[in-house]
C-alpha cells in the first residue's frame, strides 16, 4: 500500500497539468516545493517520534510529498518541450532520464553522506528540494526557440548533455556496486560523492559557455511554424514580458493529417456561402492540431495510446514495486545491486528511447509507438524469464525490463505532443501518467500482493502474518498475467501504428517537424 501511495502521489498530476497553462513555471515549482516540505516534513516528524500519527496520515503525507515530483516534472517538461519543439524526443529522453538516474543519486547520498539514516533522508527531501527549486526557478522559463532544422550548436549541446548523463549513470552504477561489495573509507566515500556532484552539474557548462562566448545573432529565417493560441496565460501574469516561444512552439503541432483533410479553409468558406455547411458548426481539430483536453478525450487514438502505455508501464511498475521481494524469492539476498541495475537500465532506456525515436522519425518517418511495440514484445519474453524463478536469470531479466520500461516513458511523451499538440500538453501528459498508480493498484497491490501473501501463508502454516515468501511460486502467476497483458499491448500497438502512420508521414515529410498548413501558406 505504501508503494501504491508513492505511485499515486508521483503520477497524479492533473492539477499541475491544468495550471501549467495558467501559471508561470516558477510558481509551479513553488507549489511543488511546498508539497515536498509539508509531505516529507510530516514524515520526518513522525519517524523522529516528535509527534505520534496514525498510518492513514502518513499515507496521505507520502502522497503529498511524492506529488511534488509531479509539479516539478510538469514545470520542467512542459517548458522545455515548448522551448525545443523540433527535438521533442531528445528533450523527453533527457528529462525523464535524469529522473530515472536520480534514484541512484539519492541512494549514493543516503549510503555515503547520510549514514543510512532514514530521518536524515527525509530531512534532506523536506529542505533540499525547496532549496534547489528556489535556486533554479528563475531559469526554468519559456525562451524563444530555435526553429532551424540544422542547428549544429543546439545539436552539439544536446549531444554533450546526453554524454554527460550517460557518464553519470555509468559512474553511479559502478560506485553503488563498489560501495555495496567493498568497505570504503570515509575519505573515499566523500571523494566518490564529490565526483558524483561534479558529473551531476556538468550540463551547467553549456549556459556558462553561452554566457562567456555568445553566438553572433543571425538573420532570422521565415518560420513554417504557425502560432495557434495565445501565450499570455502560459507565460505568467505579465503579458508585456511574455516571450513568443510558447505560441510558436505549440504551433509546431497544429497539423492536418487525415487523407480526407485535403479541403482547404477556402473550400470551407465557399461551401458555407453556398449553404452546404452550417455556419454554426465549426470543424474540430485533426490529429496533429492543437487539441484541448476534452477534445482529445473523445479521440480513439488518445485511448489507444493510453491503453498501450498502460500495458507496458502498468506491468513494469509491478516488478519495480516488488523487485526486492522478487530478488529474495529467488535467492538474491542483496537486492541493492538489483535495484541499482534496474534504475540504471531504466535510465538507459529513456535516453535511447528518446534519441532513437527522434532519429528514425526524422529519417524514416517511423511512428514513435513502433518502439513501444518492440519493447513490449521483449517484455513478454522478460516476464516469462522472471516466471522461471531461476537465480541465474534474475539479473538478465531485470536489465531487459529496465530498458524496456524506460523506453515506454521516453516515447509516450513526444507522441502525445505530436498527435494532440502542446496547447494542453501538460494535462494530457499527466493524464497518461495515471497508468502508474492504476497498474500499481491492480497488478501490484491486488494481484501480486494477494498471490505473494497466499503463498507465504502456505509456506509458513500457523504463522499469523508471514512476512517472506521463497521460490518461483511467489510471483509466477503474476508474471504470466503481466506477459499476457503485454501481448495484448503489442497487438493494440500494431493497430495504433497503422492508424497514425499517415500522421507521421505528413508531420515529418520534410525530415523535420513541420506544419502542413503553414507550408501551403508559404507556397
TrEMBL record:
Domain NFD4 C-terminal span(s) in chain numbering: 297-503
Region feature Disordered, mapped onto this chain: 218-243
Polar residues: compositionally biased ranges: 225-234
One Pfam family hit: NFD4_C
TM spans (from-to): 26-47, 53-78, 90-107, 119-140, 160-178, 190-212, 302-324, 336-357, 369-387, 393-415, 427-452, 477-498
Sequence ranges assigned to domain Nodulin-like in this UniProt record: 1-208
Record-linked PANTHER family: OS04G0502800 PROTEIN (PTHR21576:SF154), UNCHARACTERIZED NODULIN-LIKE PROTEIN (PTHR21576)
Protein name: Nodulin-like domain-containing protein
Organism: Panicum virgatum
Amino acid at each position: 500500500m505504501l508503494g501504491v501511495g508513492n505511485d499515486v502521489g508521483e503520477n497524479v498530476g492533473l492539477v499541475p497539468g491544468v495550471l501549467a497553462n495558467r501559471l508561470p513555471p516558477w510558481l509551479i515549482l513553488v507549489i511543488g516545493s511546498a508539497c515536498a516540505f509539508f509531505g516529507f516534513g510530516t514524515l520526518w516528524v513522525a519517524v523522529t517520534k516528535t509527534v505520534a500519527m496514525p498510518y492513514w496520515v502518513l499515507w496521505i503525507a507520502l502522497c503529498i510529498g511524492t506529488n511534488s515530483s509531479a509539479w516539478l516534472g510538469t514545470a520542467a517538461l512542459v517548458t522545455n518541450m515548448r522551448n525545443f519543439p523540433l527535438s521533442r524526443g531528445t528533450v523527453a529522453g533527457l528529462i525523464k532520464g535524469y529522473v530515472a538516474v536520480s534514484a541512484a543519486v539519492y541512494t549514493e547520498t543516503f549510503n555515503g553522506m547520510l549514514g543510512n539514516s532514514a530521518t536524515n533522508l527525509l530531512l534532506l527531501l523536506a529542505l533540499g528540494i525547496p532549496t534547489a527549486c528556489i535556486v533554479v526557478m528563475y531559469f526554468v522559463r519559456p525562451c524563444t526557440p530555435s526553429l532551424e532544422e540544422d542547428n549544429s550548436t543546439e545539436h552539439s549541446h544536446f549531444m554533450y548533455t546526453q554524454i554527460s548523463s550517460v557518464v553519470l549513470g555509468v559512474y553511479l552504477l559502478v560506485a553503488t556496486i563498489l560501495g555495496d561489495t567493498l568497505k570504503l573509507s570515509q575519505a573515499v566515500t566523500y571523494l566518490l560523492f564529490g565526483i558524483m556532484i561534479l558529473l551531476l552539474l556538468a550540463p551547467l557548462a553549456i549556459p556558462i559557455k553561452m554566457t562567456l562566448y555568445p553566438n553572433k545573432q543571425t538573420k532570422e529565417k521565415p518560420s513554417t511554424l504557425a502560432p495557434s493560441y495565445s501565450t499570455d496565460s502560459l507565460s505568467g501574469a505579465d503579458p508585456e514580458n511574455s516571450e513568443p516561444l510558447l505560441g510558436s512552439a505549440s504551433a509546431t503541432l497544429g497539423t492536418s493529417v487525415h487523407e480526407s483533410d485535403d479541403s482547404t479553409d477556402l473550400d470551407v468558406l465557399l461551401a458555407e456561402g453556398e449553404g452546404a455547411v452550417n455556419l454554426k458548426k465549426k470543424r474540430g481539430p485533426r490529429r496533429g492540431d492543437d487539441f484541448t483536453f476534452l477534445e482529445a478525450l473523445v479521440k480513439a487514438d488518445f485511448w489507444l495510446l493510453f491503453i498501450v502505455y498502460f500495458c507496458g508501464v502498468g506491468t513494469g511498475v509491478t516488478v519495480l514495486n516488488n523487485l526486492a521481494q522478487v530478488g529474495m524469492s529467488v535467492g538474491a539476498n542483496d537486492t541493492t545491486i538489483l535495484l541499482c541495475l534496474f534504475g540504471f537500465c531504466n535510465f538507459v532506456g529513456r535516453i535511447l528511447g528518446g534519441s532513437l525515436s527522434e532519429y528514425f522519425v526524422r529519417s524514416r518517418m517511423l511512428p514513435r509507438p513502433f518502439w513501444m511495440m518492440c519493447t513490449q514484445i521483449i517484455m513478454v519474453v522478460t516476464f516469462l524469464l522472471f516466471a522461471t524463478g531461476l537465480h541465474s536469470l534474475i539479473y538478465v531479466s531485470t536489465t531487459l525490463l529496465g530498458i524496456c520500461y524506460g523506453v515506454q516513458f521516453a516515447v509516450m511523451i513526444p507522441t502525445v505532443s505530436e498527435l494532440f499538440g502542446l496547447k494542453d500538453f501538460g494535462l494530457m501528459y499527466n493524464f497518461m501518467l495515471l497508468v502508474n498508480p492504476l497498474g500499481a493498484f491492480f497488478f501490484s497491490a491486488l494481484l501480486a500482493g494477494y498471490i505473494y501473501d497466499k503463498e507465504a501463508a502456505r509456506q509458513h502454516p500457523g504463522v499469523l502474518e508471514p512476512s517472506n515468501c521463497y521460490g518461483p511460486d511467489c510471483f509466477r502467476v503474476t508474471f504470466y498475467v503481466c506477459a499476457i497483458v503485454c501481448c495484448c499491448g503489442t497487438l493494440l500497438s500494431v493497430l495504433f501504428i497503422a492508424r497514425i502512420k499517415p500522421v507521421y508521414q505528413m508531420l515529418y515529410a520534410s525530415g523535420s517537424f513541420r506544419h502542413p498548413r503553414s507550408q501551403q501558406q508559404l507556397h
